[in-house]
Specification:
This protein is mainly α. Helices cover 57% and strands 0% of the residues.
């Protein structure tokens, strides 16, 4: 018998964790006592398609986040285009670094609003899994090729990746993520029209998504707007003087940094401006959303779901600035001769690969050929091409060209 204060000896062969000192950890770490009443809670999750026992020290959203990070689709994002292909420079964002930046901002916003940071992070990390090689150029090529076969849209494809295409577990296909993370993928955008009815019927399209999912649309846009400015200047396609002339918010922040750091060079002032621009957009998103929650008298998650509009958003003033940024990027960066030439070439690569595999399906790996009888030859080929990285797509294209 143990005396008071005496520690239980560890089981033979079982090392004692220095943090818990042998104590059994709770089955629900990160309990929801610190969450706002309208936040999503792991213990209230609607669960997975295939029931699994709970983990001893990770809750369901912890496991979802980790499953996304350990997936092949996530690793491939390193070599998928954001705006500039990976091979054009070491400092340009890739789809992976963009995803990490979105997840970081999502955690900040979720934490400040009292939301479930792990759920927000999991949705953020999964939100771009469905992007094909060469970003939107690859998506357009796939969508056109699949015009008579249901089309292609990266959010739809992300859902198929986590539900079907990832092959990591012996007992089920996909990642078997919780309902809440899958719902976040489906409702990453307000447009559900690219989803078939059967694909979204299980996700209550008539209801608003949880707030952790709602913030992803906005932090995604904040991340790519601000960081595409950064990359555009790095590529010498955008000029700081033009940004100052055409973007009042940028000009205001740039002038402030020039006053604060009079001895800094232009690069230093620009970097400070990018940092402050990001902070300004995120702060406004938090403040405006908090005001919307108060005005809407939101007290529970059920209130969030039945509210007529989404609660996350910017103030009118900052929304106007955000639209100005988006317009400038579209006109001066995304439609610049350098970017459009690269994307035209990329579309040609993706289209050529689809045609080559359709002309000779035996070129596909055997396990992908087996899917012909399940989803059809065209869709199976498209799934294979959509999973490629930029560099693998280019190497396959060169291989086919060389005979």
């Amino acid at each position: 018998m143990l005396t008071r204060g005496q520690k239980v000896p560890p089981r033979r062969g079982s090392p004692v964790c220095p943090v818990t000192n042998g104590r059994r950890m709770s089955r629900q770490p990160h309990l929801s006592r610190h969450l706002a009443p309208y936040a999503s809670r792991a213990e209230a999750s609607l669960g997975r398609r295939y029931p699994e026992p709970e983990h001893s020290y990770r809750n369901c959203f912890d496991r979802d986040r980790d499953r996304v990070i350990h997936s092949r689709a996530f690793r491939r994002l390193e070599y998928k285009t954001q705006v500039f292909p990976n091979y054009e420079g070491d400092h340009f964002r890739t789809r992976l670094t963009h995803t990490i930046e979105v997840a970081q901002i999502a955690r900040t916003v979720a934490s400040t609003l009292g939301l479930n940071t792990t759920l927000a992070e999991a949705v953020a990390l999964a939100h771009d899994l469905g992007h094909p090689p060469f970003g939107h150029a690859g998506e357009e090529a796939l969508d056109e090729a699949l015009m008579n076969h249901g089309g292609f849209e990266h959010n739809r494809h992300a859902l198929r990746i986590v539900e079907e295409l990832e092959e990591r577990y012996a007992s089920f296909r996909g990642l078997n993520l919780t309902y809440e993370v899958r719902e976040g993928i489906v409702k990453h955008t307000t447009r559900y029209d690219r989803f078939r009815h059967s694909e979204i019927n299980d996700y209550r399209p008539e209801e608003q998504p949880h707030l952790e999912a709602q913030i992803i649309d906005w932090v995604d846009e904040i991340a790519y707007n601000v960081h595409d400015i950064d990359d555009g200047v790095e590529a010498r396609i955008l000029q700081v003087d033009d940004l100052v002339a055409e973007l009042p918010l940028f000009a205001e922040i740039y002038s402030e940094q020039a006053r604060r750091f009079p001895d800094a060079d232009e690069r230093g002032r620009f970097n400070q401006t990018i940092s402050r621009l990001l902070d300004t957009l995120v702060t406004d998103l938090i403040d405006t959303t908090q005001g919307n929650i108060r005005t809407g008298k939101i007290e529970t998650l059920a209130d969030v779901r039945r509210y007529p509009d989404r609660l996350v958003g910017h103030s009118e003033e900052v929304a106007e600035s955000r639209n100005q940024i988006a317009d400038l990027l579209m006109a001066n960066l995304y439609r610049s001769p350098h970017v459009t030439a690269a994307m035209d070439e990329a579309q040609g690569v993706v289209t050529g690969l689809l045609q080559a595999y359709q002309e000779d399906p035996s070129r596909l790996p055997a396990r992908h050929q087996k899917r012909f009888s399940v989803v059809g030859e065209v869709r199976a080929i498209a799934d294979y091409v959509a999973g490629m990285t930029d560099r693998f797509a280019l190497s396959e294209s060169l291989r086919f060209e060389s005979g």
